[in-house]
Amino acid sequence: MIDLSLYKEECYDVVGALYNVKRELGAGLNEKIYQEGLSIELSQMGIPFEREKAIHPVYRGKAMESIFYLDFLCKGTVIVELKAVNALCKEHRAQLLNYMHLVKPMVGVLVNFASVYTEIERYYYDRESDEIVNNEGRRIKDKYMEDTVYHRHN
Question: Residue 130 contacts by C-beta under 8 Å, 6 or more apart in sequence?
Answer without folding.
Answer: 151, 152, 154
